[in-house]
């Protein structure tokens, strides 16, 4: 099981579904553990009732149906499906409205969804999802990428409501991009990163305010890590293998 999870962490996101399918065939006894611990690239579905798109994941799925955060209906329809309580549903509606604004400001567009459900410890769990298609044919406003996707998954476990409430955040980001033009040539980069954060925050500030601050801080850390690990190392390798003309001229012996 540890080897399987290690393999999944090292696979490019675009190959994760094929790899997971192969692992499920090899390890049928660990299928539930693999499905619960492995994050796959996010998929999108249109809600015909609201006219808006929503993100599919394990957290809004029951059987083969997924619940839309906009209409609170399952697609396709499902009998005896689980729903959040009326109080939690109101918080979920507010969170989706706020996170849509956050997504537009930080990602220059994209699709977001927020799902909430009760847990067994008198608290609740929240899942914030963002999918950004940065390709030329998608939502990429600058037109630099032939293909490009950013999938962000933030799961927050909220403890019982007290003066200081416990928040446990687990965040995963999956990045994949490809360029193909005359100036930059063909270049492909993909990977994923996961981090955790625990905080005790005053509930008087409001759950959405507390969770929003944690997500904002975590996304900043994840972007910095991706910039240092993926782009920084790639830049270092390219500069060593293909030095600029100025560097080449400096290295040439003078007559």
TrEMBL record:
GO cellular component terms listed in the entry, alphabetical order: cytoplasm; F-actin capping protein complex
Gene3D superfamilies xref list: 1.20.58.570, F-actin capping protein, beta subunit (3.90.1150.210)
GO molecular function: actin filament binding
Highest taxon in the source lineage: Eukaryota
Cellular localization per UniProt: Cytoplasm, Cytoskeleton
Pfam families: F_actin_cap_B (PF01115)
Keyword Ribonucleoprotein: no
Major place of residence: cytoplasm
UniProt-listed InterPro entries: CapZ_alpha/beta, CapZ_alpha/beta_2, CAPZB, CAPZB_N, F-actin_capping_bsu_CS
Keywords, in A-Z order: Acetylation, Actin capping, Actin-binding, Cytoplasm, Cytoskeleton
Function: F-actin-capping proteins bind in a Ca(2+)-independent manner to the fast growing ends of actin filaments (barbed end) thereby blocking the exchange of subunits at these ends. Unlike other capping proteins (such as gelsolin and severin), these proteins do not sever actin filaments.
Binding partners and assembly: Heterodimer of an alpha and a beta subunit.
Family named by the database record: Belongs to the F-actin-capping protein beta subunit family.
Protein name, UniProt field: F-actin-capping protein subunit beta
